[in-house]
Amino acid sequence: MNRRDFIKAAGIASLGIAAKPGWDLLAQEALRQTAPLTAKRWAMLIDLKICADKEGCRDCSVVCHRIHNVPDFGNPKDEVKWIWREPFERVFEDQENQFVPENLERSPVLVLCNHCNNPPCVRVCPTQATFKRPGDGIVMMDWHRCIGCRYCVAACPYGSRSFNWRDPRPFIKELQLDFPTRERGVVEKCTFCEERLAKGLIPACVEACKEKALIFGDIEDAESEVRRLLNQRFSIRRKPELGTQPQIYYLV
Amino acid sequence: MLEKALIGDRRYWTWIAILFAVMGIAALCYLRQFREGLGITGLSRDVSWGFYIAQFTFLVGVAASAVMVVLPYYLHNYKAFGKITILGEFLAISAVVMCMTFIFVDMGQPFRILNVFLYPSPNSLMFWDTVSLMGYLLLNVLISRITLGAERNSLPPPKWIRPVIILSIPWAVSIHTVTAFLYSGLAARSFWLTAILAPRFLASAFASGPALLILLCLILRKTSNFDAGREPVQKLGMIVTYAMCVNVFFVLMEVFTAFYSRVPDEMAHFQYLYLGLDGKHALVPWMWSSAVIALVSLVMLLNPKTRARESTLAIACIGVFISVWIDKGLGMVVTGFIPNPLGLVTEYSPTLPELGITLGVYAMGLLLVTMFFKIALSIRKSVA
Amino acid sequence: MHDTLKIIIGLVVFLILMTFPLWYNLANGKATYRPEPEVITKSIPGKDKCILPAEQMRVRHLSLLNQWRDSAVRRGVRTYAAGDGRSFEMSLTRTCLDCHSNKDTFCDRCHNYLNVKPYCWGCHLTQQDTVQSR
Question: Which residue of B265, B315, C26, C55 is 20 to 30 Å from C120, comparing CA positions?
Answer without folding.
Answer: C55
